[in-house]
Amino acid sequence: GYSVSLKHFAPEEMNNVKKIILMIPGFFCRRSVMDKLAREMALKYGYRVFSMDMRGRSKYTLPRNKRDNSWTLDDYIQDDFPAVIEWIK
To answer: Which residues sit opposite 52 in a β-bridge?
Structure first.
């Protein structure tokens, strides 16, 4: 019932490492804080980069019922992060 948000930065040319970078901002900031660094990692260094916004960190990830904000750090670690890793795979 919750959403996370991912922004994808794709390189013009992939480097030969072929690794994907997942950037997760700190708990007190939004994904947009990472956009400049993510863009640089993609365009300058050739990585595919995903920048993650966890539930409640942006208007896209707020629960549908605005009163339901009872999630915890455990929810991020046990639910959100594994769901994003699985989606990227």
So the answer is: 6
